[in-house]
Amino acid sequence: MTGRNSGNFYYVGGTSMATPHVASLAALLLQKDPSLTQADIEWILKNTALPLADNDSRLVFDFDHFATIPWDTDCGGNPCDPVGAGLIQVDAAISFLP
Fold first, then answer.
1. Chain centre distance of CA 37
2. Which regions of the chain are under pLDDT 50?
3. Under a CB-based contact definition with an 8 Å cutoff, are residues 71 and 23 in contact?
4. Is the whole-model pTM more than 0.90?
């Protein structure tokens, strides 16, 4: 099965899904070191992220089977990077700071 699932879950992504997670990690980093700048936090997040291939897909379990959903690489008729720097890793980002 490729594409959206058959009703158990609706898969969404993008900045509205990522923002709360990234903001929370930024807050944790600032709690650990209040002198960090926006550029510092961005560098830490990007350099501790788990890289993902932008030409791959994700495998999800839905009801009693797995569904393969490819990354969306079309942003309104324009090609786009579907994975950015990858998946943030909270433990790696926090551990980066002394």
1. 21
2. 1-3
3. no
4. no
